Amino acid sequence: MKPMTLFYRRLPSPLHAARAGVAALWVAALTVAALLLFHPLVLLALLTGVLWAGAGAGVGRPLLRSLRTGAIVWLPIVLVNVLVSREGVTVFARLGSLGPFGQGNLTVEALLYGAVIALKVTLLILITTLASLTIDPDELLRILRRLSFRSALTASLATRMIPVLVADAQRLAEAQRTRPDGPPRGARGRVALLRAVITGSLDRAMDVAATLEVRGFASASRAPRLVRPWSRHDIAFLASAVAVLALAGCGRLAGAASFNAYPELHAPVSVGTLVLCAGLIAAAALPFTDRRGID
Amino acid sequence: MSAPLLCFEQVSYRYPGAASPALSEVSIEIQPGEFCLLAGLSGHGKSTLLRAACGLVPHFHGGHFAGRVTLAGLDTHEHGPARLGAFAGVLFQDPETQLVMSSVRAELALALENRGHSATAVARGVEEVALALGIDSLLDRTTHELSGGEKQRVALGAALAGRPRLVLLDEPTSQLDPVAGDELIGLLRRLNQEWETTIVLAEHRLERCLSSVDRVIAMDRGRIACDSAPHAFLEWAAKHSPALQTPAAKLFALTGLHPAPTGVRGARATLRAHGLLPEECPPQPVGRSKPKARARRAAVPPAALECSGVWHELHRGPAILRGVTLRVQPGESIALMGRNGAGKSTLLRHAAGLLEPTRGRIAHAGRVALLLQNPGDYFVHDRVADEAPPQALAAFGLTELAQQNPRDLSGGERQRLALAIVTGSGEAPAVLALDEPTRGMDREAKAELAQELRRRAAQGQAVIVATHDPEFAAACAERAVLMADGRVIADGTAAELLAGGWYFATETARILSGAAGALLPEQGAELLRARADGAQIPIDGEQRASAILPGVVR
After folding, report:
1. Is B356 touching A (CB cutoff 8 A)?
2. Chain A contact set for B320 (CB, 8 A)
3. Pairing state of beta strands B359-364 and B23-30?
4. Which residues form the domain of B485?
5. Chain A interface includes B158 (CB < 8 A)
6. What is the CATH number of the domain that holds B20?
7. Is residue B236 included in any domain, yes or no?
């Protein structure tokens, strides 16, 4: 069976070597930057930084695949925005009267604003993918278990059970294909198949519940705090997270990333903008240059 | 004698809604440091007894419970599985449902953290159990990418992490290949000997572990039918429950030798002492018979299934099959053997058309019916009658069960229903392929299945069975194919292939060093009788043979 590629797997990379809490903070910093900043050039710089980070973490290929899959999202965003938005002054196509929706004038500004929103969404998808591929969910949930044990363990179980249930469903579908008359057809057949899948999942859940019982789930106490020395990668990613947050905050406050689409396009490229772009790329990529102690 | 670690006093238990009790008036005591084997046919109460020992019965399953179970002095009726888990580690059959975390390290740590151990104790416990089980190299791996054997070792590690005094195991080797299964049993023996861990192991393939255990508890319809040392158990099984006899014990019983051996070493020692041990012969080369092309064209009938240079290469991944060439004649029965991941299941999926070869060609003379590993995966209806046509149900003796829910059937009945589904009622399939059909089956059910497969082969169907069980392979196949790393590495008669190995060999063959290709106890007994009679190999004389074989069957 083809291995699942969108799940965490320990790889020799600085991001995998960093503690989950710091790695999560670093990813959160990138997310905040992607949400705060609107200037297309700055967002492209951030995209470069994220892709660079993915390559440095050894997950460049699934990240690129995620970028391709992201087209399913960003293409409709651009199309919907250009069709729905009535703002902007530079009309590039006139569709005439659209009845209750008014005049169908398509503007360059609406097109570009849609593209910027799509870029932000793509960035968020990529950052989420990067997080799911590089942050140890058990370690992360362990931190959350100190706050809410049962919720975190449920989340952990769900994470673990997804590949198991996917494999179960594949096995069941395969078994149905080996019937001489093929899988059950029609609405009744599909309902019967769905019921079989659910029954199988419940059986699995019962077995897992029994395992949890004998591992002491019922009397579970808060996970103990782990005392771990700070590695060079913990420090590097923490510094990077602070730098990304500072750059995003300062860039926003100083207007280095100012962008307005309506009524007219306004995206000035100043020295500050260029410094911000370079700073974001460097902050995202620099922690990956030190590859000592990553195994 | 010290206080028992586990004690059952007149325990009876009935699952909710069940018509008959799963346990009836069970009374046993297990002392610290004992290695006990639970024997019995499927559905006779082994798993329930283990679940009662760790408190899952009745706390988790409900039902009607009577009597008293104490574990390390704690009454299981008053203390739940979580509390009892500090004293008893549990390993169930399916490793997939026993791994609840994403990484091996977190899995091993979970039970310790749940019990409130300090961070230092957790770290130390994880490290120690990983070293003890040789899984330290897996600590940073994710659990879903482990092999079946690795998953089972990690699950065992999770059960052992708190250094419990008692370990309860429910058929832990049923999903493992012979190598991984033997490794696991060896590991349990080591735990028992080096750390005095008490072990209670439920297992169907008794020959795998009988020589390692101190005591055997046999169950029959929820009652303790026998509780004794391994030798005495074998004597009891010969008289009262032949289905529980190991192949070695059966070989000795058929030959009239005493006492029944608990393993290969003991059997060989007895045979050597009696001058009956066949000479150690060097392993015979087993290869692919390649008849000359002209002769093949002239004599060989059309194949039921022919795989020619079949490759299965994953995109950006390894090759699972590497140029497999296999020709199966109508009426031929083949056992496909090899370790987990050798490519057996993939080859069967190709044969049935579930997968397309990336290179090579597959041809078949008719339909290929494939029975996959889990019969339950075929059941989508509430009634047996809705799953398969009446003729197919009748062919497998399931007509009387037509109104039952498929999920309520026994293991053997489920297997038969799945066979009825895949074979259908129309045109009989040219090839019947089965993927690990004996997982979790007892010896009686295996014998029934082997008989059914032999019957189908006699009717002209080609039968291919992927199996880890050499005894089953010997019982149902005339030809054996050994696969490794996606290739066919040996192909010959079952007598050639299953007689000349350590892992892929029957117990009889290992005892007799593969002499005369004897695989099954009946064949071995015939060989030994011939030796005793001096007909084949001269021994000390007829007189001595008669003296040592008083009850010889002639």
Report:
1. no
2. none
3. unpaired
4. 303-517
5. yes
6. 3.40.50.300
7. yes
